[in-house]
């Protein structure tokens, strides 16, 4: 794929567990590819009830930021009206992208960022449990910890993709 995506096209996103098992699959449109950054745009076709996020209305938009060299991804959710709903950040191994399928290994830790930029770190216990279950290499454990630190610094500094101008 070229450095800059020329046209929007649908891709399949595959969130996998460390053992390769597919955890979730959805489709999104490629908005741009710039160096290691891949930006996708998706929309909820149906209403979803999520234990932490509550009711997600049909038509909620998701701008998804993935990197092929960073250990996290960021989802910016907007209500059907366009209003910022929240950010949801996954700690994951760097994405792999072949222009048709984007795949990443979800390492369980998530950050929920409210519109006021307050942050809740989620699922650290699930990370510890799966680190034992799947025998995460020490490098994965260390990179996951650094990813949380990096995300917290980006949120605190309102740096991309948490800058309100985007």
Spell out the key features of this protein:
alpha+beta; 2 helices; 11 strands; 166 residues
Concise structural overview:
The chain is an alpha+beta fold.
Q: Can you tell me about this structure?
A:
By secondary structure, the chain is an alpha+beta fold. 17% of the residues lie in helices and 45% in strands. It contains two helices and eleven strands. Strands 1-2-3-6-7-8-10 form a seven-stranded mixed barrel. A two-stranded antiparallel sheet has the order 4-5. The radius of gyration is 15 Å and the shape is globular. It starts with 9 loop residues before the first strand and ends in a 10-residue tail after the last helix. The relative contact order is 0.15. Mean pLDDT is 90; it is low at 1-6.
Distance N to C terminus: 24 Å
Secondary structure category: alpha+beta
What gross morphology would you assign?
globular
Specify Rg, calculated over alpha carbons. Answer: 15 Å
List the helices and strands and how they pair.
Blueprint: E1 10-16, E2 22-34, E3 37-43, E4 48-50, E5 54-56, E6 61-67, E7 72-78, E8 84-92, E9 96-97, E10 101-113, E11 119-122, H1 124-133, H2 138-156
Parallel strand pairs: 1-10
Antiparallel strand pairs: 1-2, 2-3, 3-6, 4-5, 6-7, 7-8, 8-10, 9-10, 10-11
